[in-house]
Specification:
- The complex is a heterodimer of chains A (477) and B (405).
- With 477 residues, chain A is an alpha+beta fold.
- Chain A folds into 3 domains: 203 residues, no CATH class; 113 residues, no CATH class; 58 residues, Arc Repressor Mutant, subunit A (Orthogonal Bundle), CATH 1.10.10.410.
- In chain A, 39% of the residues lie in helices and 20% in strands.
- Chain A has a 9-stranded mixed sheet with strand order 2-6-7-10-1-11-12-13-14.
- In chain A, helix 3 links the parallel strand 12 and strand 13.
- The longest helix of chain A has 20 residues.
- The N and C termini of chain B lie far apart (45 Å).
- The longest helix of chain B has 24 residues.
- Chain B has one domain: Amidase signature (AS) enzymes (Alpha-Beta Complex).
- In chain B, the strands form 2 sheets. Chain B has a 10-stranded mixed sheet, sandwiched between helices. In chain B, strands 10-11 form a two-stranded antiparallel ribbon.
- In chain B, helix 8 crosses helix 10.
- Chain B is an alpha/beta fold and 405 residues long.
- Chain B is built from 14 helices and 12 strands.
- The chains are: A alpha+beta (477), B alpha/beta (405).
- Chains A and B meet through loops of A and helix 8 and helix 11 of B.
């Protein structure tokens, strides 16, 4: 008999916080500097030096927790997570084990049927990153080099409840998490750049059961997609094991992206956590917390609802705009200048973003600022230019800083709406294409499209399409 | 930046002794306290070749007052345990006027008693630990020893108070509030701890009672006070101290400084061998014990932490019964010059450990508790951050006694 299994998945996500300095010293967190440039006696843990907890890292961590709907604990504390490895030369990592910063959060992810599913977050705690090891050869001697630039960089670890049931849900959760954290400006969350690292715990149980079976931890995924792939592989691997009657044993596996498989890894020695005596307990005052809550922007879910109501957008359009803070700000700024919201969405998603992508330009650096796009859409709305011309003007706006009106005049894009001019043009086109006129009169509607195309071409693309069609229909009837 | 003016711990209250300054004094600095540019090897191969990049805050503040540091090499590894011979060498032959000494188990006070001088361990958190190569961060404290109480008091006043480099220090306002200036006017009530007295033999008790009569003749009232769990301090210190030591010494890996074993095949073997060759037997035993509690018997460590909190609570109740508490600084008998195990390491400190566990300030006074030829020291312990009052009471007593003599 073949059992029907259900996957039970929990994620542990390490996120690098957006901080200028490290967690326990004032060294820069800049990426890409010469090895060991951003170090000091504290993050090198020289004898006699004491950690100095950074308020900036607490602020960012609390913003992250708030954006994930967590309860911030009034008191939390750092522990020493003991393990001996060259990336951690003081022998322990400062992390919050016994008293984490926040508990009981959640995040909704979209389900297939348009509804939302709530994934619970068990806890979020702060910890410092460790150094980076580089293994090289000096001649024929293998050497291990340690780069301390990353040592002490502020992180939070986000631990979910085992509420995720499929690789798709795992990926949806990570996307939603990234949106929330980026919104709150607490983190960038790029798996490719290593500012978000995800471990997944996967176990199986017969569908309908509520048991939590032995789990396998998988690591080393470097993109959201590879988390999905690794989880999918692991589910299948465990199903095969169970079908063959092999027990699942608790262990850790590494995702090998080249072979699309997970492989067992050697266990790292995990030590105990003892309270750290040198970092003071963290006590969060109500007033400070309220201040941070007030700094939290309107989050994507609420913004989506508001966009639907305020701008009469479809839910898809609204949630697309709300997915990034800069994007929604850009949209609202453009709409506030009088552009029709619907036209705005269509032009931003259909024209502007592809142009930016093509030029590898960030939206925040977009040369077509909201006032310029609103100006362009105004010209379109008043039928001073047609859509084709507007697309061309937008393209030119990427390199030409002058106002859209000037570009329209300089390049002769102004739409021809003078009836006399258009009638003369239509007469000429009808005379040149008698057979098409004949067909149209016999009821071939396709012929109308042909005639429109000819007429528009004759106008150099500048004819007002609405008027042109009217005249054409009248004259050929 | 630190300045005396902005340091609340330094507000002068006005007596003559309080205006004494460490200017021009030669201060002994043991090799587990950083002095910029000098080797800070803490008596351990594990720190061989480590030169301090900056002064410890205590050293810097003493220098700023015009004191002159004279560094001396510790012979006890990582400053753990007793090395009175070091001290008598530097104090006895007049090399220094007074000396700094870390006090983790009671080293500064017991060494002072053995040498018949004053020894002082401030409240935990009163003096910055920046630059102190510590072993037990929740109990390590920079202490002071000297023939002259005024020197110690002046040095303490010069170094105490908030330091950005040691964020574990408490709010300075809390320290100031615990030390009201007017408290000296009323007669001082001194408590003897019943649970401590019960553990002394009759000769020790007689010696202590003589000292108590001296204090009564100086106007102090003496009463018995209760301190449940007094005897548990050693156990708590032993467990918590060794666990913290095990963590703290993780950084001594022979990579960036210190002795590095040669010929190892890989990094792991290099670590293991460097550490094996660096640490002495006693430190190894202590670290092993700590690692045992961390990895094999964590609940014992948790229990010790709970008992410690209980002792801290219990010690607060002492001050409902008396202003200060007195007891001998040490038990009679020579401390083993080379402790064979952790038990022997702790033996000389059975009466001092509790103030490291609770963080209380403690001052050892010479020439008051005499047991045959040897000075056991009179330990005076006060409430947390009540350091100033402790020093002033003792100062007045000695002023009167020496005036009479």
């Amino acid at each position: 008999m073949i059992m029907d299994y259900e996957a039970v998945i929990g994620l542990e996500i390490h996120v690098q916080l957006n901080c200028r300095t490290k967690m326990f010293c004032r060294c820069s967190t800049r990426v890409g500097d010469e090895p060991n440039r951003n170090t000091c006696p504290i993050c090198l843990w020289l004898p006699g030096y004491l950690p100095r907890f950074s308020r900036e890292s607490l602020e960012r961590a609390v913003l992250a927790c708030l954006s994930l709907h967590c309860e911030i604990r009034k008191e939390s504390a750092f522990d020493q997570k003991v393990y001996y490895y060259p990336d951690l030369p003081k022998g322990y990592q400062l992390s919050q084990f016994h008293q984490p910063l926040a508990l009981n959060g959640w995040l909704d992810i979209p389900c297939g049927d348009g509804a939302a599913k709530r994934i619970r977050i068990r806890k979020i705690h702060m910890e410092e990153d460790v150094a980076k090891l580089v293994h090289e050869n000096e001649g024929r001697t293998p050497v291990s080099l340690v780069d301390f630039n990353r040592a002490g960089v502020p992180l939070v670890e986000i631990v979910t409840e085992p509420d995720i049931r499929s690789p798709r849900e795992a990926m949806e959760f990570l996307r939603a998490l990234r949106i929330q954290l980026r919104y709150s400006e607490s983190a960038e969350c790029s798996m490719e750049q290593g500012t978000m690292r995800v471990d997944a715990n996967v176990s199986l149980r017969p569908r309908g059961s509520s048991a939590l079976n032995t789990k396998v931890e998988i690591k080393n995924m470097n993109s959201i997609r590879s988390v999905g792939d690794a989880v999918a592989y692991e589910i299948q691997r465990q199903e095969t094991c169970l079908a063959a009657g092999e027990p699942i044993v608790l262990h850790t596996r590494l995702w090998d992206p080249d072979n699309g498989a997970t492989l067992p890894m050697r266990e790292k020695f995990e030590g105990p956590c003892v309270p750290d005596p040198s970092v003071p307990r963290i006590v969060i005052e109500d007033a400070w917390l309220e201040d941070l809550k007030a700094r939290l922007p309107e989050m994507p879910a609420g913004k989506t609802d508001r966009f639907v109501k305020q701008y009469q957008l479809s839910r898809e359009e609204a949630s697309f705009l709300a997915s990034e803070r800069e994007l929604s700000d850009y949209f609202e700024a453009t709409a506030a200048l009088g552009a029709s919201p619907r036209t705005c969405v269509q032009w931003i998603s259909g024209q502007l973003l592809p142009l930016l992508k093509e030029g590898n330009i960030a939206l925040t650096d977009c040369p077509a600022a909201p006032d310029r796009l609103a100006g362009l859409l105004g010209l379109l709305d008043r039928e001073e230019i047609n859509a084709n011309a507007a697309k061309e003007v937008l393209r030119r706006m990427m390199t030409d800083p002058s106002p859209p009106e000037r570009i329209v005049e300089e390049c002769g894009f102004r739409q021809v709406s003078a009836e006399g001019e258009l009638e003369a043009l239509v007469d000429r086109v009808l005379a040149e294409n008698p057979s098409a006129v004949e067909n149209y009169r016999k009821g071939a509607t396709k012929a109308m499209g042909f005639l429109m195309g000819r007429a528009m071409q004759a106008s150099g693309g500048k004819a007002n399409p609405r008027l042109l069609k009217e005249i054409l229909a009248r004259k050929s009837a | 930046m630190h300045s005396d003016v902005s340091n609340p711990g330094n507000s002068a209250h006005g007596t003559a002794a309080r205006n004494a300054s460490p200017a021009g004094k030669r201060v002994g600095v043991p090799s587990n306290l950083s002095v910029k540019g000098l080797p800070t090897e803490a008596g351990s191969l594990a720190l061989r070749g480590f030169t301090a990049l900056e002064d410890a805050t205590v050293v810097r503040r003493l220098k700023e007052c015009g004191a002159q540091p004279v560094s001396w090499a510790l012979s006890r590894e990582l400053g753990l345990g007793l090395c009175p011979e070091d001290l008598s060498r530097v104090l006895g032959n007049g090399q220094v006027d007074f000396s700094l000494m870390t006090d983790t188990l009671g080293e500064a006070r017991v060494a002072a008693a053995v040498n018949g001088v004053f020894g002082f361990k401030p409240s935990y958190g009163m003096v910055s630990r920046f630059g102190l190569v510590g072993v037990v961060p929740s109990m390590d404290c920079c202490g002071f020893l000297g023939k002259n109480l005024d020197d110690i008091s002046a040095a303490f006043r010069a170094v105490r108070g908030k330091d950005d480099r040691d964020p574990s220090m408490p709010d300075p306002e809390a320290c100031a509030a615990a030390d009201p200036p007017e408290s000296l006017d009323s007669p001082v009530s001194v408590g003897t701890i019943v649970q401590c007295m019960n553990g002394l033999d009759s000769a020790e008790r007689t010696a202590l009672e003589k000292a108590l009569s001296r204090l009564e003749s100086l106007g102090a009232t003496v009463r018995e006070v209760e301190f449940q769990g007094f005897d548990l301090a050693r156990l708590v210190h032993n467990v918590v101290g060794s666990v913290e030591a095990s963590s703290s010494c993780g950084k001594f890996d022979g990579v960036r400084y210190g002795h590095r074993a040669s010929g190892a095949k890989n990094w792991n073997e290099m670590y293991l061998r460097s550490r094996a060759e660096s640490f002495g037997t006693l430190v190894k035993a202590y670290l092993f014990q700590g690692a045992y509690f961390q990895f094999q018997d964590y609940p014992a460590f948790e229990n010790a932490c709970r008992i410690r909190s209980g002792l801290v609570r219990e010690s607060r109740r002492l001050w409902e019964q008396a202003d200060l508490v007195v007891l001998p600084t040490r038990r009679p008998g020579a401390a083993p010059s080379n402790p064979a195990d952790v038990g022997e390491l702790y033996d000389p400190f059975s009466l001092t450990l509790w103030s490291n566990v609770t963080g209380l300030p403690s001052l050892s006074l010479p020439r008051l508790v005499l047991h045959g030829d040897s000075d056991l020291g009179l330990q005076l312990v006060g409430p947390l951050f009540g350091d100033e009052r402790l020093l002033r009471v003792a100062g007045q007593w000695f002023q009167t006694m020496e005036g009479v003599r």
